Amino acid sequence: MDITRDARDRLLPASIPYRFFGLAVICHVGAWGLLACYGDGLPGFIGGPGPILAALHMITLGVGASTACGAAIQLLPVASRVSLRGVGATVGIFLLLVPGLLILFHGMGAAQDLAMEIGAALVIAALGLFAWKIMDLMYRVKDMPVPPDYVWISSFALIGLLSLAGLLVADGKFGFLPRRQDIAAAHGLLAVYGFMGMLAMGFSGILLPMFTLGHPPNAVWNRRAAGLALAGLLLSVAGLLADQRTVFLIGWVLGMVAVMVHLALMRQMMKTAMRKRLGPSFLLVRLSWVMLPLSLALGLAAATGFALDRSAPLFGFILVFGWMLSFLLGVLQRILPFLASMHSGLSGGRPLMPSAFTHEKAAMTHARCHFTALFLVSCGFFFEQGGLVRLGALAGLLGALALLWFALHVWWQSHKALRAAKLVNIS
Amino acid sequence: MTRQPLIASLLHEEHVQTISALQRLEEFLMGQGGKRPPELKRPENREVVGGITAGIAAEVQRHFGFEETYLFPLLAEQGQMGMVGMLAGEHQVILPLASGLARRAEAAINAGAFTETDWAAFHGDGLDLCEREIFHIQKEEMGLLGAIAAFVDNESDERLSALYSQMVAATAE
Ligand SMILES: [Fe+2]
Ligand SMILES: [Fe+2]
User: Fold this and answer.
1) How many independent structural domains does chain A possess?
2) In a domain? residue A427
3) pTM for the complete prediction?
4) CB distance A3–B16 less than 8 Å?
5) How far, in Å, CA of A207 to CA of A74, rounded?
6) ipTM of the complex
7) What whole-number distance in Å separates Cα of residue A258 and Cα of residue B80?
8) Would residue A426 count as lying in a domain?
9) Mean of the per-residue pLDDT values for chain B?
10) Residue A289's Cα: distance from chain center in Å?
11) Nearest Cβ partner of B135 from A144, A145, A353?
12) Contact A369/A398 with Cβ under 8 angstroms?
């Protein structure tokens, strides 16, 4: 009987999740780099093609969706004890995603319609395939340590946001949409709160208790939070699409309650955490917990037209760079060494521990730069100073390079470990 | 995820105890550093170096023994060979590490002090043990306890819990 067969089924070949994580780390550098060059345009930005739109999508798609792909295809099978069917399809997702993103970023940045259309089509195909693979897996799941609701809602939000993306790109060519702004906003809500937010809330219940050794969130309340978040998402998106202010506001309130329940669950987990030494990655996770309700408050200000010139772009920035990016990068800093350690044991011999793959200095530099960047860019928005935004983006770029260094260190150490294991096996 | 079997809670409680001991050891080792051996004449140092390592070694031996003898075969029968193989493999690394540390601590206490080279090796292996065992427990808390809930029926749960309590009582005597 081959006792490692089962583990191999669940632990995908390292190259599969890592290629998505690598893509995320590179897009992260690109986004801050673009903002460091063109950040003057950020204060007062309300949408439309240009480098800002490209930088925004480098974070949401390049970092967000890629990390989600890498994490979901590797961690969902482990958490649910159900294998992913057709691992080859994940290669297809990646092969569609990379050229799609490159063409889309170019199209957005240079305002070239054809490139935007082709890029969008490829990315929609890649993420559609991803949604299908995840739904196929979830359909076979019998029980999971966290409510599967989060993953389902996230997958449906992904399909919704891709449909709206297609609509928006088509409208760019034919111009048939009334109230394009509201549809773009609904697309953004479904993307960040829906697709990424639900996945983040769901994974928080599995990954964070494991890293902190705290109590996992109470299952009943976790389910309620998922239900509230779903209702909030549906109503606020419907309110935007149908131009119904009251419906949107009810959705907003439900969303805020869901976030509060989620944060209370996370607070409970941190209180019971047995592991106290959590490192720079948890500075980022904690920061994201502050940014999540802040983003909702700014979203309400923007939706009700309060100080619109400032609140609308600041909302987008705090939501995407403040909440989503901080959370993802904090978790990524833990997952990369964690998976590397798991893989180092597969080739036989003594597995290396995550600390062997963790470049502490690079992680700390990244966290410091990330905080500085968020602070400076937010000040830039507030005082409407483009120069301050660019300075902040420069700090972000420095941090992104530190994170790239961190990731290269993981890769290099894995490579060394693999070579050493091979030498041992031969001799 | 609704029913938490007794044996899962018992193992979890012991994980909690082991982790708190490991964290005390880890704090001490980090505070002391690898270059300067601790003053073993001071009782609080003897307590951490000798008492805690001996405690961890004994706890780990019993706990691992229970998992390998009674729990893993049952889960392997249910098709969980991959997880069981990985966890058992980690036991094979951790157990000698823990008992080696306890033995070296006892020798140093009897001799009255660590030599500088002995301490450097003890310090490195001690931190290695802390990370390995905590990481091992993290995996068990994530995978093993869930698998128990999914694959261990009420009858087996009662039998395993009784066996476990017997083992704990036997080592306490
Ligand atoms: Fe164990
Ligand atoms: Fe255990």
Assistant:
1) 1
2) no
3) 0.91
4) no
5) 13
6) 0.80
7) 36
8) no
9) 88
10) 14
11) A353
12) yes
